[in-house]
Amino acid sequence: MADNGDEEYRIQQGDYVVLKRGDIFKAVQIVPKKKIIFEKQWFFLDNAVGNLYSTTFEISSGGILQPQKLKETGNPSDLKEAGTDNRNIVDDGKSQKLTRDDIETLKEQGLKGQEIIQQLIENSSTFRDKTEYAQDKYIKKKKKKYENTVTILKPSCRILAMMYHGREPGKICHLRYDTLAQMLTLANIHAHSKVLVFETCAGLVLGSIMERMGGYGSVIQMYPGGGPVRAGVESFGFPAHFHDTLHEFPICHVNALLAGELDTTAKDPTLNLAADEEQIQPEAEQQGSPEEQNMETNAAQDQEKIEKEKRREAKVRPIFAKNVCLIIRLFRRLVIASRFHPCPVLMTLLKFLAPSRPFVVYSQYKETLIECYTKLKEQGGTVNLRLSDTWLRHYQVLPNRTHPVLLMSGGGGYLLSGTTVAMDQSKPAASQRSEEPAPKRQKVKDTEG
Amino acid sequence: MSFVEYSDCIQDGDVAIVYLSHNSVMPVKVQQGAQTQTRYGVIRHSTDLIGQPYGSKVTCSKGGWVYVLHPTPELWTVALPHRTQILYTTDIATITMMLELKPGSIVCESGTGSGSLSHAILRTIAPTGHLHTVEFHQQRAEKVQEEFAEHRVDHLVTVRNQDVCKDGFGVTGVADAIFLDIPSPWEAVGHAKAAMKRQAGGRLCSFSPCIEQVQRTCQALVDQGFEEINTLEVLLRIHDVRTVSLPLPDFGPDCRSDGVEETSPNYAAVSLKTTTPPREIPGHTGYLTFATKPRT
């Protein structure tokens, strides 16, 4: 592909991008003359415009970005002088001759990260005695600390899911990125799907679904309270036409919709007020909630929302256009991932799902999904029910130093997935083929093995 | 019916999935006048299937019943006839997200094998993407081509019967993502790089059961200038929901200090709903190594 045909690969003004250094990510928008703070450094993104995505920049003095020259070749430790083991190395904290002030001076002099690391090596009394592997490890550690580069990436579900999980897991109900991956596949999200989503994960789940749909099909986001939260969706930087596929519906009118009593024609004389409230609501959600959402904060927010909703009870917004209701009746996939108890959400929203369609429910807690499973079995109308979670482990792969990474994620949440089938009208639920063995009698051991 | 688009009713020529019970599904080629044997009896296609909505319950000749489901790549993975060891949904889901697959993606894959991952990729990249898949075994290549046609996804895929390590994927400079599931992936890394688009950001994944293969592949990736090289594994844990009855011990009547005897509790067991893990679970499928291609 010729260079002049690759605008879609170049950073533009106004783009939503993700900054990356090592394993740290941050989603920002390219805004002229706006100071960005990332990993304790501040800089401006103006110079990035026009460059290709995935370019790595150096942060020079004044916060100006410069594209990094081609990978600097040659390891600082080309010395090749190394020890065999650490039996004589004493860790007394005095092996580095440069003081913190010295290093600051070097930084002020404008020395690049690579050069600072070289200085640290030369002024370390123990570097020569370290084994080659230990030297590698030392250099990697210093690079992480003194590097002043940042890479600008095009956002994607993978990057944003990793970012949210690393930075603000509380905002996404501690949904780990591999669990999100499972959800998207188990729910068979693809172009031309009609998906019903109920999520309180800052819009990450919604955005991921939209990415997999590619602008084809439609998504209805059911939301609690005053307005849908979509900050996460913005970070994906979708083209404008993707938003044509996105609709919303407040859950406070779900029962009316199910009963066929929803008034879709009433006009809203205070449309402006409603729109303003909708804009304020998402911001309040983000500012109000701390890193770890605890129950007290949730209750307070919900209370606030309930009050706002009561004020608006009488006014039916024009969003309840007839076509939205039609879409709801025809939808084909159900995805639930929220801080709400999933059971009532699932049992109600399943009513909108046609037979032979997949659904997925995420919960941070297993017990809630056990309840869902039990209710679904009693009610019938679903098969292939599966309660699962995934175990994720990263590996360090280096010659003679390959092993799993020392720390791993303790948990990524649980999923309940299944497929709908025609509801059995005639037979009572008890005669459904049970997939659960009958509870064993007391004489026999309950656990196997 | 197609694997990339839902339809409501079963039609002649469809491939449907018959759900017999948990862990028991089978694919059925729907044909006017045909019959399918199941352990619950015979299913007559003309009367029981054609024209019925997907998701319907079908009563078989012996009186037992099954459900007929619309095919999805996930159901296909569980139902398909294995010609090789296949990838299961857990790994497939992780690969799909980490390779950043979406509608319009151009993907290269080798080996095709039994087509488990291929169907999932096609579902994700439809309607505007394309899959170039390479399989060095001639019969397998032919069989999978047949299946793609039957499943109405052949317009999205090109099958090539060649050795990816020698001849590459058959395309250059177009792929957004590459997937390798072959014995010697390090030999294909160079070809993978050539098949990928020039701009940075292309993603690569290599699946290998053995750690030695992973080590050699990572070295090849480093040598070819790939970045963000990352190896991980994902395992599925199933939780079987069970009602469990636990007996309570009888320590005898509860004697209180004021001499009043309390009778022991009159219930002898507590029932609780919990989950238990299966006795054995898959503990290893393979290591997944991902990398990003820089600009060339």
TrEMBL record, chain A:
Key words of the record: Nucleus, tRNA processing
Pfam families: Gcd10p
CC per GO annotation: nucleus; tRNA (m1A) methyltransferase complex
Compositionally biased spans, kind Basic and acidic residues: 78-92, 433-449
Annotated segments matching region Disordered: 68-92, 281-308, 425-449
Localization per Swiss-Prot or TrEMBL: Nucleus
Composition-biased stretches (Polar residues): 284-301
Entry keyword annotation includes Cell inner membrane: no
GO biological process: tRNA methylation
Described function: Substrate-binding subunit of tRNA (adenine-N1-)-methyltransferase, which catalyzes the formation of N1-methyladenine at position 58 (m1A58) in initiator methionyl-tRNA.
Subunit structure: Heterotetramer.
UniProt similarity note: Belongs to the TRM6/GCD10 family.
Protein name: tRNA (adenine(58)-N(1))-methyltransferase non-catalytic subunit TRM6
Automatic annotation (TrEMBL), chain B:
Location of region: Disordered: 275-296
GO molecular function: tRNA (adenine(58)-N1)-methyltransferase activity
GO BP annotations, alphabetical order: tRNA methylation
Any Pfam family hit: GCD14
Entry keyword set: Acetylation, Methyltransferase, Nucleus, S-adenosyl-L-methionine, Transferase, tRNA processing
Residues engaged in binding S-adenosyl-L-methionine: 114-117, 135, 163, 181
Gene3D superfamilies: 3.10.330.20, Vaccinia Virus protein VP39
Chief site of localization: nucleus
Subcellular localization: Nucleus
Entry's Gene Ontology cellular component terms: nucleus; tRNA (m1A) methyltransferase complex
Function: Catalytic subunit of tRNA (adenine-N(1)-)-methyltransferase, which catalyzes the formation of N(1)-methyladenine at position 58 (m1A58) in initiator methionyl-tRNA. Catalytic subunit of mRNA N(1)-methyltransferase complex, which mediates methylation of adenosine residues at the N(1) position of a small subset of mRNAs: N(1) methylation takes place in tRNA T-loop-like structures of mRNAs and is only present at low stoichiometries.
Family: Belongs to the class I-like SAM-binding methyltransferase superfamily. TRM61 family.
Protein name: tRNA (adenine(58)-N(1))-methyltransferase catalytic subunit TRMT61A
Chain's gene name: TRMT61A
